[in-house]
Amino acid sequence: MADVNYQVGANADDGHWIEGSSFDATSNGPFVGNISGVRHSFARWTGVLVPQGAIINSAKLVVMGRAISGTGKTNIYFNDENTAVAPTTYGEADGKALTSAVVGWNISAFVNGTWYDSPDISTVIKEIVDRPGWSSGNDMMLIWKENGSTSGSYISWTAREVNTASAIYLYITYTAGGTGGVLTVNYEGGVASGLQVTQI
Q1: Which helix (H) or strand (E) holds 154?
Q2: SS3 state of residue 158
Q3: Model-level pTM?
């Protein structure tokens, strides 16, 4: 098995949009929920080193909470593309193709400055790496959608704009081609560092 983890590496690679209204990639706290409109968010990771067709043993988001009201009822999708491009307008964000696989995450606690793990999203990641056009090193993007939160209920998570160390992570553990090892790659600002491989 191999483990990879990535952090959003550019301020423009996270943000949110309000249905039928506006787009924002500069907010310190992207929203998902139902506050002054239905809000959805996104986050993109570049250079994801997972082979095409790999077995996804586990996968998760690790996100720093910022604010919450009520219970944020959310769905985790990814952009169903071979390599994801971050949106720059409302139309681009709202028009992104979604994976068929989806994982629900209803959040009732989100303390500012605290890290939280999402439920396992292996099925979502598997759908991306099983695409015929997927290649190791392509880019992946989370599409995090509101899913029936009551009016006034939302979560807000910490954007890269707050601090590069606070940006949302993507963790993936996979098995490919009978090879073994533990591979850790840390990304910040789009540059890989701390590469280590250990055979098992």
Answers
A1: strand 154-157
A2: coil
A3: 0.88
Question: Dihedral of CA 20/24/28/32: which sign?
Answer: positive
- Exposed e or buried b for every residue in 114-136, given b needs 16+ CB within 10 A? eebebeebbebbbbbbebeebee
Asked whether the beta carbons of 185 and 46 are under 8 A apart, the reply is: no
Please write the tens of the pLDDT for every residue from 23-56: 999 989 999 999 999 999 999 999 999 999 999 9
- Please count the CA atoms within 13 angstroms of the CA of 141 that sit on its side-chain side: 25
Domains of the chain: 11-171 (2.60.120)
Stretch (H or E) spanning 77:
strand 72-78
Cβ neighbors of 58 (< 8 A, separation 6 or more) are 120, 122, 171, 172, 173
